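PROTEIN DESIGN WORKSHEET
SECTION A - STRUCTURE
LENGTH: 135
TOKENS:
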């Protein structure tokens, strides 16, 4: 018997699918995509984000879609994004990703959250190769 089954039997609980507690974050009413960059050094792994945003911004702006950059501690923050000025808890991060139209990431817990919500994810591989993956 697994530990979780033992705990459930002892406590009289039913094992069910885990869920994520999301915390509301007041952002306003607009459509957005989320962008989470950086690693433990707060540097983006992919060095061409500014060029990517410059290319996609006219299309996004014509559709009224904004880019929400989630890592407030990033050393070099890209233009053409709404950048939050505070550290975001995992619960608020979950809320923001759940309500986004698309998630751009360099990998990490944000990618795991996006996959839980069946979001379209664009994952930028850290070796300067761009890889599109659908999760």
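SECTION B - SEQUENCE
RESIDUE ASSIGNMENT:
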């Amino acid at each position: 018997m697994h530990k979780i089954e033992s705990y459930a039997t002892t406590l009289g609980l039913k094992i069910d699918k885990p869920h994520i507690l999301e915390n509301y974050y007041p952002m306003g009413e607009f459509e957005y995509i989320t962008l989470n960059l950086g690693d433990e050094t707060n540097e983006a792994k992919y060095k061409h984000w500014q060029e990517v945003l410059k290319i996609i911004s006219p299309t996004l702006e014509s559709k009224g879609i904004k880019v929400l950059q989630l890592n407030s501690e990033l050393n070099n923050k890209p233009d053409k994004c709404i950048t939050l000025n505070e550290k975001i808890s995992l619960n608020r991060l979950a809320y923001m990703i759940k309500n986004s139209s698309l998630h751009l990431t360099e990998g990490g817990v944000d990618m795991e959250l996006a996959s839980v919500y069946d979001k379209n994810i664009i994952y930028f591989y850290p070796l300067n190769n761009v890889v599109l993956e659908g999760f």
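SECTION C - NOTES
The chain has a mean pLDDT of 83.
The longest helix spans residues 49-62.
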